[in-house]
Amino acid sequence: MITQDFEINFNELKIYSLTFQDIKLLKRNNNKKYKELEVQIKELGKESAKWQNLNYPITTLDIIENHPDQILYFICGRNDIIIGYIKIGRKKLYLYDKNSTCHELIPLSVLDFLITTKYQRKGIGHFLFEFMLKKENVIANNIAYDRPSNRLTSFLKNYYHFTKDIPQYNNFMIFETFAF
Ligand SMILES: CC(C)(COP(=O)(O)OP(=O)(O)OC[C@H]1O[C@@H](n2cnc3c(N)ncnc32)[C@H](O)[C@@H]1OP(=O)(O)O)[C@@H](O)C(=O)NCCC(=O)NCCS
Fold first, then answer.
1. Where, if anywhere, are coiled coils annotated (predicted)?
2. 72: helix, coil or strand?
3. Per-residue pLDDT at 55
4. What's the alpha-carbon Rg for the chain, to the nearest Å?
5. Among positive and negative, which fits the CA dihedral 87, 92, 93, 98?
6. pLDDT of 104-149, one tens digit each?
7. d(Cα 17, Cα 132) in Å, to the nearest integer?
């Protein structure tokens, strides 16, 4: 793939968060803004599904509105155009530790993560991820990653010293250093 060479001004990037309550309020108080947001997130959701070989998007405003446990952090470039997002949530999971002991936990999970193609590999994913870590007061090691792509695994190796996971019986990936 040919990547376009252009500089990112990180001071221009803005990150917003959305919960089911924010969506309900936006729908009620500013339906025009809601519709604009809905269209942009829908397009990105489709792109993310394509990257991950999913048959349908797992991120739309409707989905978030119906999942009180989910939070969408989205990042905008110039003119408030959304260039990516990370969706997180808390799910009850059965996770195995290194000794094959099963734990029932509700860890913070990364459920979907996308930076639109043109803006990939410019540090924006890292910028957004770091913002999310701070807001959620969590470290990368203690997150569960839903069906991580090779690109996300490489991202975690690059920035968060990920080396090895603990094999699980579900689609989630956790670091070997996950704190049970
Ligand atoms: C994964 C993703 C969110 C990372 O965002 P990003 O802005 O590209 O990441 P950054 O620029 O901050 O970091 C770049 C690092 O991420 C990893 N990475 C990103 N894209 C990659 C790719 N196509 N192949 C391999 N590694 C990749 C690499 O470690 C890369 O470092 P490098 O360029 O020095 O090799 C983004 O690439 C993306 O949206 N990919 C497609 C969707 C996807 O796979 N999402 C994960 C869902 S599980």
1. 27-54
2. strand
3. 97
4. 17
5. positive
6. 999 999 999 999 999 999 999 999 999 999 999 999 999 999 999 9
7. 9
Residue with CA nearest ligand 1 atom 17? 155
Which amino acid, residue 107? P
Q: For residue 85, give the H/E element and its range.
A: strand 82-90
Residue 3 lies in a domain: no
- The pLDDT tens digits for 11-37 are 999 999 999 999 999 999 999 999 999
**Cβ of 109 below 6 Å from ligand 1:** no
Residue at 1 is within a domain: no
25 is in which domain, residue-wise? Answer: 10-173
Amino acid, res. 138: V
Ligand 1 atom index nearest CA of 121? 11
Query: Domain of 63: which CATH number?
Result: 3.40.630.30
Number of domains in the chain: 1
